[in-house]
């Protein structure tokens, strides 16, 4: 089962946001893959960067524990040497298994003044139970070169803090990404007042499961759908050896 978490967190304390995340993850099935919105514990706390980074350090063991029996991802503010980074973390069965820094910073949000950009070469695949997973963080969704880089993924995760003024862009781009890469797209966006919501699970055929009025959206991941479209609409993507659904 794929699960998109969609909740408001701007203006809440870091601990309150952690409690919200915990409550939602407790509702997700065993062996599911879930995604939380971008910076869902801290939001873009430019006036509290040091505090947010310290909170990340202290909360990491609890975040890992939340993944016992399941998998989930989120992004966090971390301090590396003297610089702050927006790091995606993927937890699986109680362990941190993958980290990726946001490489394309959103200049309209002045991210470049507060964060150090990650290296595009860090954008790689991580495999879980035969599922090839890739990640694009919010603004990175807009770069065709990154779509090419993650070609061949079976599941693409998009944690986002995407404004409602460009809601249509988010919906069109995530659906097009699923169709172009013949993959599932799991996107989780903030439900804060100024945000687009539009969290969704999108199939390789472009079918969208989404609901702006719910904070947990779920849909089955079916490997046969990926294999079928890659076999009958062959654009050069390989079929993964795994089978079945989650």
TrEMBL record:
MF term (GO), any: 2-oxoglutaramate amidase activity
Keywords: Hydrolase
Matching InterPro entries: C-N_Hydrolase, C-N_Hydrolase_sf, Omega-amidase_YafV
Keyword Hydrolase: yes
PROSITE patterns: CN_HYDROLASE
Keyword Hydrolase tagged: yes
Full protein name: Carbon-nitrogen hydrolase family protein
Gene source species: Sulfurospirillum diekertiae
